[in-house]
Amino acid sequence: MRGRARRRPPLRLQFFLDDVHDRQVEVVFVEPASPDAPLPPGVSHWPGPGESVLSPSLVADGVGDRYGRVVGGIAAEGLASPGERYAYARPADGALTVEHAMLATGFGSQDAGGFGDLATVRPFSVFLSLLIAMLGLPAGLFAVVATRLGAAGRDRRTALLGALGASRRQLALLSAGEAAPALLLGVAPAVPVLGAALVTDLRIPFVGYELAAADMRAHAWPMVCALIGAPLLLVALVVLMHQWTGPGRSTRPRDAGRGRLVKVAAGLCPAFLGILSWSPTALATYGASRTVVLVSLLGTVGALATLPAAIALLLSAAGRGVTALGRSRGLAGTLLAGRWTQGRPGYLSRLVAGVVIAVGLLSVVQVYPSMHSASVQGALAMRERFGHSVLTVQVPHTAEGRSDPLAERLPRGAEVAVLDSTLGLANGAGEVKETPDGPVEVRQAVTVRGSCDALRGLGLPCPSGESALAVPLAEDTPVLRALLPASVTQVGVSRGPLAVRQSNVLVVYSPQGEALPLGELKSDALAVLGPGALVEGVGQGWIGGAALLSSQLRWVTLLGVVGVGLVALAAALNCLAEVVRFARSIAPVSVVTGSRRVYVAVAAWTLAAPLCAAAVLGAVSAVWVTLPYTTPPRDGELPPQMLSAAVAVLFVLALLVAGLASLSAVRESRRWRPRHD
Questions:
Q1: How far is residue 544's CA from residue 431's CA, in Å, rounded to a whole number?
Q2: From start to end of 74-111, where are the E strands?
Q3: Strand 202-203 to strand 210-211: parallel, antiparallel, or no bridges (unpaired)?
Q4: Of 264, 266, 262, 248, which Cα lies nearest the Cα of 347?
Q5: What are phi and psi of 594, to 5 degrees?
Q6: CA-CA to 593 of 20 to 30 Å: which in 316, 448, 475, 668?
Q7: Judging by beta carbons within 10 Å of its beta carbon (0-12, 13-18, 19+), is residue 636 exposed, middle or buried?
C-alpha cells in the first residue's frame, strides 16, 4: 500500500541435499524472521534453535539428531508421498544470515516442483508409458488368447445359430453370458485390493514405493470406473471376436476376417521397425525430448505387437514348401502339416505371439537399466577401493574460519587437508570464458594445504618453506587422483594451518585405511560449520544419483516381470488349447495312414517348428527392438548370453509341447471310432 514501508519476508530458507544409506534426503533449514511467520506444511509448531522435525521415513532411517535435536515429525499433509525423506531444521541463532539465505513469504506454490519427491519422482506420463509398454501389450495378448480359447467349437456353434436365424444381438448376448462368470471371477480379487488401498497406505513389493491412501481416495471415481470398465471392455472383445460372418458355401467356421487382420498387422510392422531404426538418430539430434521418447515407445510397442503377424505370414508361406516336400516324398504327416499351416495365419500368429513378445520384453527389461550404469562404474570402483576411509567436507559460505573446531572433533588418527580449487571439484574439464579477444579456456588449478603428516599421508611432499610446490599427480597419490578429474595433472602443495574459506573442500582420511564414522562427522560438520556443510564419501554424488535411478528402474523390472508372466501364461494356455485341438482333429488320421507315427510328424511341423522358428526370429527382432537403448548416444547392453539362454529354453519348451501334443493325439486316436448315422 502507498506510503507504507515494504514488509520484510518473514522466512529465511536454505535447501540442503544429504544422503542416508545412499538415498537422497532433502533438508530445509528455516528461520522464522517474525512472530507471524507461517508454519511449514505438516508441522504443528516451530522447532527451536538447533532443533528439527523429520518425516517418518527419515526417522526410520536412523539419522537421529543429525540436523538438530528431533522435537517432532512431519504429518502426511506436508509430504509428497508417505515414503518421502524430508526434514525441516532450525539452525542455531545467527547461522542462517540474510546474505546467504532465500527470503520467502510462505510455503507452497502453483508450481511446487523442484525439491523433494516432487522433483525426484518421475511424472505420471512416464509411468503411464511404462504401463502401456510393459503391461498393456501383454494384457492385450492375454485377453485375445483367452477370448479365442476353444474358439473352434464356439465358431461352429455361432455358425449353426446364425444359420438357424439368430440375430447379431442374440449372438452377442450369448457370448457375453458365456464370458460373464470368468470375467466376474477375474474382477473379484481386485475389489479387496482397491478397498485396502483406499483405507490404508500400501507398500508396493520390490520397488518399495508407499502408495498413499489419500491419493487413492482423491482418484477413487476413476478407480471405480476402471474396475467396472475393464470387464465391459473384455465383454466387447469377446463379442467382436465371435461374430457370425454370415452364410457361405461352407458350413465350417470362416477365418478370412482374422486372416485379413493378420495381413494388415504384418504390413504395419516395417513402419514400426523403421521408427526403431530412426530413434537413435533422433535421440542424438534432438535429445530425449518428450516427442522423441513417445515416438520411440510407439515404435517399441508397435513392433512387438505386429512382429507375430509378420512372422506368422512367413511361416504360412513356408507351409507351401512343407506341403511340396510331403507330396514329393509321400510323407502323409508332412503333407498334412504343410496344408494345415499354409492357410492358418491367425493360428500361427497366436502361437508365436507369446514367444516373440516374451523375448522382446525380457530384452527391454535387461537393456533399459543397463544404459544408465556406465556413468557410475568409476564411482562404485572408488567406493570399493576406499570405502569410508576418505571423506570430503564441502565448506559452506558462512563457515569461514570455523574449521579448527571441526578438526578437534575428528576421530583419533584421522588427518585433514584443504583442497583449494579455482573451479570446484566437479568442473574438471575447465570453463570457457568470453574475453575481448575471444573465448579463452580456463583450466582448473588446485592447491593442497595442511600439516606435514596430512600431506605425506596423501602421498605429497612437505615443502620446507612457505612457498607452494608444484607436484604432478601420479599413482602414489591415489586419493587425490580419485577426487580430482583427469584434466588436473598437477597440484600446488603448501604447508600451513587449515584456515578454510568458502568453497574450500576438506579431505578427511584415515592413514591406516580404516572406515571413518560418517554419521558422526555429518552431525559434527553441520553443528560446527553450519547449514550446507556436506560430508560425503568418494564418488558419493554419482553413487547417490545411481541409487535414486536404481530405485526408479525397479519399476521397469517389476512391470516387465509381471508382463512376461502374463505373456508366458497366455502362451501356455494357447499351447495347451492347441494340443487339445490338435489331438481331437488329428485322431482319425491313423485310420487312413495305418500308423500313429504321423502324429509326431504333424506335431513337429505344426507346433515345434513354428515355435522354434519364432524363438530364433524373436531373438533377432529383440536386437532391433532394443536399438533405441543400445545405439549411441545411449549405451545400453543386450547380453548375447541372455538371448542364447532364452532361445535354448524356448527350444526345449517347443519340443515338450510337440511331444505332449503327439502323445495326446495317440491317446485320442485309441478312443476314436467312426460315427454310424
A1: 25
A2: 86-90, 102-104
A3: antiparallel
A4: 262
A5: 75, 10
A6: 316
A7: buried
Place of cell 469377446: 238
Cell 607452494 appears where? 468
Q: What would the mean pLDDT of 341-368 be, rounded to a whole number?
A: 81
pLDDT digits (tens, 9 = 90+) for 641-675: 888 888 888 888 888 888 887 777 677 666 665 55
Q: Phi-psi bin for 650: left (phi > 0), alpha (psi -120 to 50), beta?
A: alpha
The three cell numbers of residue 493 are 602443495
Q: Which cell goes with 663? A: 502323445
Q: What is the rounded CA–CA span in Å between residue 190 and residue 436? A: 69
State the first-to-last Cα distance of the chain, in angstroms, to the nearest integer. Answer: 103
Q: Name the β-bridge partners of 103.
A: 12
pLDDT in tens, 57-114: 888 888 888 898 999 899 888 888 888 888 999 988 777 777 777 888 888 765 555 5
Q: What is the chain's alpha carbon radius of gyration, rounded to the nearest angstrom?
A: 34
- 197 phi-psi bin (left φ>0, alpha ψ -120 to 50, beta other): alpha
Identify the CA nearest to 216 among candidates 230, 236, 202. Answer: 202
Is 531:14 a contact under the CB 8 Å cutoff? Answer: yes
pTM of the shown model: 0.70
- C-alpha closest to that of 136 among 311, 307, 357, 352: 357
Q: At CA 59, angle to CA 58 and CA 60, rounded to 5?
A: 90
**Cα–chain center distance at 375:** 17
The C-alpha atoms of residue 442 and residue 432 are separated, in whole angstroms, by 6
Q: Return the percentage of the chain with pLDDT > 70, whole number.
A: 81
Nearest-angstrom CA–CA distance, 362 and 409:
52
> What pLDDT digit, counting tens, does each position of 370-381 carry?
765 555 666 777
The grid coordinates listed for 483 are: 577426487
Nearest residue to 466 (alpha-carbon basis) of 494, 443, 493 = 494
3-state helix, strand, coil in the chain (%, to 5): 55, 15, 30
Read off the pLDDT of each residue in 152-170 and give the average, rounded to a whole number. Answer: 77
